[in-house]
Amino acid sequence: MTPQDIGTTGVRVSPLAFGCASIGNLYRATTDAKAQAVLHSAWAAGLRYFDTAPHYGRGLSEMRLGSFLADHPDVVVSTKVGRVLSPAKQPIAEADGFVAPAQNGVRYDYSGDGIEESFEQSCQRLGRDRIDILYVHDLGEYTHGAEQFDALFA
């Protein structure tokens, strides 16, 4: 697949990306081995752009993608900020459609410090010192409700 430029950013992506929600156990659990197998299949098919998020399995998707990236560093990775993860206080069986997620609690934080902390956590889970594309995840009334959304900007 011929890479495409994203505007004038210098970032080049394959025309198709692999969305990593499924390897975060979206709707059903999968094993680490199966997650790695599907990532290798995506690589073999020519995909060089992988999109993930702390939301996907409470960090599980980023951890699994990070394992894959150890042997495939020359890819474009996007992830998201807005959620800061910390060890869960109680076991979690399901969270927001993700089955058997990583055992992390979540705190929404769109402040400068929160974005920095979310970014640094993602870098650690991904085993990278940089992220090629960084999105703000779920900032809006739909996720937070009108009252809480308005409070974010008060």
Please provide a written account of the structure.
The chain is α/β, with parallel strands linked by helices and 154 residues long. The chain has a single domain (16-152), classed as NADP-dependent oxidoreductase domain (TIM Barrel), CATH 3.20.20.100. It is 32% helix and 21% strand. The protein contains 4 helices and 10 strands; from the N terminus they run E-E-E-H-E-H-E-E-E-E-E-H-E-H. The chain has helices spanning 32-44, 60-69, 112-126, 141-152, and strands at residues 4-5, 12-13, 18-19, 49-51, 76-81, 83-87, 94-95, 98-99, 104-108, 133-136. The strands form 4 sheets. The protein has a 4-stranded parallel β-sheet, with helices on one face. Strands 1-2 form a two-stranded antiparallel ribbon. Strand 7 (94-95) and strand 8 (98-99) form a beta hairpin. The longest helix has 15 residues, at 112-126. The protein is globular and about 45 Å long. The chain starts with a strand and ends with a helix. The model has no long low-confidence stretch (mean pLDDT 91).
Strands, helices and their partners?
Elements: E1 4-5, E2 12-13, E3 18-19, H1 32-44, E4 49-51, H2 60-69, E5 76-81, E6 83-87, E7 94-95, E8 98-99, E9 104-108, H3 112-126, E10 133-136, H4 141-152
Parallel strand pairs: 3-4, 4-5, 5-10
Antiparallel strand pairs: 1-2, 6-9, 7-8
Helix pairs in contact: 1-2
Main traits of this protein?
single chain; 154 residues; alpha/beta; TIM Barrel; four-stranded parallel β-sheet; two-stranded antiparallel ribbon; 4 helices; 32% helix; globular
